[in-house]
Amino acid sequence: MAQIYGVNSVFEALRARARPIERVIIAEGVRHHRLQELVHTARQAGVPVQREPRAALDRLTGGANHQGVMAVVAAVRYADADELIEKAAAQTIFVLLDGIEDPHNLGAIIRTAECAGAAAVILPERRSAQLTETVVKTSAGATEYLPIARVANLVSFADKLKKHGFWVVGVESSAEKDYASQDYSGRLALVFGAEGRGLSRLLRERCDFVVSVPMGGHIGSLNVSVAVGVVLFEAVRQRRP
Fold it and tell me: Comparing C-alpha atoms, which of 146, 205, 151, 165 is closest to residue 18?
């Protein structure tokens, strides 16, 4: 079993019912405007709700910012990357992340990708943050809805995507092409690298196009989670009728 914490994360887990929930624990005396709705949703789902001293939640979550709410759930399961490709439609968007090691960035990216309607986020098995409690909380529950897959090698996976009709578009601050001038129609894989390092050389070479988000201020680059939002929502905007 695993645990998730934070009001939004627990609430979305109850709504999604993507994995079994053993129980919800609420700290005594906690107040939150969504708490009554959360308890009602838990009871509708047949999930026991128990009250515990806040110190008990502090201990169970290792002192994390749990907002007085946590749930004991089944361990998260990664999606199968090959199955995701087989299910891909004509306008599917995948988000590929190359070496994103900060769990808060990963959680924010997953939240953005789910809100934009991406079909999945793909992570490498090494040199990457994975689906921890911190990632789940930062995603505000998006991990309960959006498939997350791991692959042994992102370069090989990009090659496989291209064989299945995907355009692979890398995003890197050094690229000359403005992201807004790119055509994002069709099956699409957007590839983002870690801040500072950017995309690995081999993965960059596999991209059909590499674009950048122009900067107008004194700081030379965006947080990667913000860059994902900028480019991903431009792709979504272009696909609207």
Answer: 146
